[in-house]
C-alpha cells in the first residue's frame, strides 16, 4: 500500500527541500500535495485526506496547531508531524495534547526525516494489518474468523501458525487479537 503525505509549510524553500530531501517512495509513500498555510491545507484535506501531514506551526491564516486540532476532530486517523524552528515548551505541550506523532526542530537533516518516516510507516503498516484483521472479524471477507476456524479444525494442516502466516501476523499477536475479539483462546498447537 502507498501512503500519502501532505506538506504544509509557508516557506517555499523548506517545502521544496522536503520534497527533494528524501525519496519517500522508498517508504511506500507519495507526496500528494503542498500548502503554504493552514487554510490552504484544510481545503486540500477536504478533497483528499492524506495519511500523513507534515506541518509547520507558525503560518499565516491558520497555524499548524489550529490545523492539527481540526484534523484531529475530523480525521483522527491522520498522522501528524510538527515542523518548527522554535524550541518552545508550549508548542511541545500542544503537540502532546493533540497526539502528534513527531516534532522536528528546524533545521532538520535527511536522517531526521528518514527516521520519522520509518517510524510512521511502521505505525501505518500495523494499523493496516489490524484493519485487515478487523475486516476479517467483522465479516467483510467470505465469513467471520470464528467460522473460518471452525471450518478448518478438521484440516490436519490448519494451525495458528498457518493462519497467522496467511494473514501476515505473528502467531502470538494473532492469538491475542482472537482472544480480544472473540473472547476465547486459540488452543490449536502451532
Task: Give an overview in words.
The chain has 190 residues and is an alpha/beta fold. It folds into two domains: 3-129, Response regulator (Rossmann fold), CATH 3.40.50.2300; 134-188, Arc Repressor Mutant, subunit A (Orthogonal Bundle), CATH 1.10.10. Helix content is 51%, strand content 15%. The protein has eight helices and five strands; from the N terminus they run E-H-E-H-E-H-E-H-E-H-H-H-H. The protein has helices spanning 12-21, 38-47, 64-74, 89-97, 110-137, 145-152, 160-167, 171-182; strands at residues 3-8, 29-35, 52-56, 79-84, 102-105. The chain has a five-stranded parallel β-sheet. Strand 1, helix 1 and strand 2 form a beta-alpha-beta unit. Helix 2 (38-47) packs parallel to helix 3. It is elongated, with a radius of gyration of 21 Å. It starts with a strand and ends in an 8-residue tail after the last helix. The relative contact order is 0.10. The mean pLDDT is 84.
In brief, what are we looking at here?
Residues 143-190 form the HTH araC/xylS-type domain. This protein is α/β, with parallel strands linked by helices.
| Structural domain count | 2
- Which class of secondary structure composition applies to the elements? alpha/beta
The whole-number mean of residue pLDDT values reads 84
The spatial strand order of the largest sheet comes to 2-1-3-4-5
In helices, the fraction of residues equals 40-55%
Sheet with the most strands, sense and barrel status: 5 strands, parallel
Shape: elongated
CATH topology (level 3) name of the largest domain: Rossmann fold
Order of helices and strands: EHEHEHEHEHHHH
CATH class of the largest domain: Alpha Beta
**Cα separation of the termini:** 29 Å
The rounded Rg comes to 21 Å
Architecture (CATH level 2) name of the largest domain:
3-Layer(aba) Sandwich
- Which regions have little confidence, pLDDT < 50, spanning 5+ residues? none
What is the tally of beta strands? 5
CATH homologous superfamily classification of the largest domain: Response regulator
Number of contiguous helices:
8
Amino acid at each position: 500500500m502507498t501512503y500519502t503525505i501532505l506538506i504544509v509549510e509557508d516557506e517555499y524553500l523548506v517545502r521544496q527541500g522536503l520534497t527533494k530531501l528524501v525519496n519517500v517512495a522508498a517508504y511506500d509513500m507519495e507526496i500528494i500535495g503542498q500548502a503554504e498555510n493552514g487554510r490552504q491545507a484544510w481545503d486540500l484535506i477536504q478533497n483528499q485526506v492524506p495519511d500523513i501531514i507534515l506541518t509547520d506551526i507558525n503560518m499565516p491564516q491558520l497555524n499548524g496547531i489550529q490545523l492539527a486540532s481540526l484534523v484531529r476532530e475530523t480525521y483522527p486517523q491522520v498522522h501528524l508531524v510538527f515542523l518548527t524552528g522554535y524550541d518552545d515548551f508550549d508548542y511541545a505541550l500542544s503537540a502532546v495534547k493533540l497526539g502528534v506523532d513527531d516534532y522536528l526542530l528546524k533545521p532538520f537533516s535527511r536522517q531526521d526525516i528518514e527516521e520519522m518516516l520509518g517510524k510512521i510507516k511502521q505505525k501505518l503498516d500495523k494499523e493496516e494489518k489490524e484493519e485487515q484483521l478487523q475486516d476479517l472479524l467483522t465479516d467483510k471477507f467470505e465469513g467471520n474468523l470464528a467460522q473460518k476456524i471452525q471450518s478448518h479444525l478438521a484440516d490436519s494442516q490448519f494451525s495458528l501458525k498457518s493462519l497467522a502466516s496467511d494473514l501476515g501476523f505473528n502467531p502470538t499477536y494473532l492469538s491475542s487479537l482472537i482472544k480480544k475479539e472473540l473472547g476465547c483462546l486459540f488452543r490449536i498447537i502451532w
